[in-house]
Here is the input.
Amino acid sequence: MRTIRLTEETKKNLLNDLLKRSPNNYDEYADTVNEIVNNVKVNGDAALFEYTKKFDKADINKDNLIVTKEEIEEAYAIVGEDGLVDIIKMAAENIRVFHEKQRQYSWFDSKPDGSILGQRVTPLYRAGVYVPGGKAAYPSSVLMNIIPAKVAGVPNIVMVTPPGADGKVNPGTLVAADIAGVDVIYKVGGAQAIAALAYGTESIPKVDKIVGPGNIYVALAKKAVYGFVSIDSIAGPSEILVLADETANPRYVAADLLSQAEHDELASAILITTSEELAEKVSVQVDKFVSELSRKEILQKSLDNYGYILIAENMEDAIDAANEIASEHLEIVTKDPFNTMTKIRNAGAMFLGEYSSEPLGDYFAGPNHVLPTNGTAKFFSPLSVDDFIKKSSIISYSREALEPIHKDIIKFAEAERLTAHANSIKVRFDKE
Here is the structure.
């Protein structure tokens, strides 16, 4: 890994480099995506099945579009052979318990004058979950996207995922979806599936919100339909930042950096440390691990493209850089990680201490692993129950409550030259 001194200039160059990975910079795909989206919007199922044949080589029609109960049972038999089903169930329970604590409730505040103010919390009616297929099938992401919707009380959770050429869906994906509580699974993927969820077709109902990761075509399709439906985010490549001092174990740090670098060539892995000795040892250990691990080509390209070791003069500078980068995953491996954590403003998820490695959050701990990327942790949060609810304000006034303030409201409305607003209040106190 390249090792550089942390200065204002190197920090600026690094931030510019990382921003190149944003899906917003891939406009050359936009025309293709928009064509697919508009075709599905206009032609519905016909376009959907045509694209599935073209891109996934699968013959899907209205009769075999939905995953059957028998296919799910078959998936359990395949996945259950190595005990993975029980592990998925344990992870699902941890995720459910964590997200239960995020639930919000309606509230009302009444006063003696007869006024009632409040907020009603209701779940979305229908949520759509996109799940990648093929080699990018991750049962953990299925759990992370469906369970918060289930906890929020969404009554209709539909999932779309591309089939293989044989018309089947990854068995791990099916098992995770069933355990998480999905209501129906459709065998379609890509930008065409996003369009189907956003606008509806003869076979797939329109949803209120689309969540879930996907390739650049999926990301741009979500961007294109935003406004017709809500979306979670336009996710970029994965990233990890490790903030460490001289107390950190270089072997652990190196292993954790590579845990994200193996996702793809655009993944980012950064160490910021105040210790030159740690920097040197981590670099050596990274090279050793890369030579041993199975995805060495992807690892090496990721490190060559977006792998950095930054040496800071002091921890204050290191923390400042971490806040500017606003990483998706932030590991804090310092003498007092909880104290360091209090100075972090921007991070998708924080992992404190040397035994809180990033994969713990990916699979098992319970907090959501769908996190803001590309610096958006400065203003976005992890996927949560909040993403699947909406709030309505409640206002109820009696005549006795409105009378003392009605002239103030009239004056306010007239100041804005909205006389119909003023009249709406005034007529209630006209002398009959």
Remarks:
- The mean pLDDT is 94.
- The longest helix spans residues 84-100.
- The radius of gyration is 26 Å.
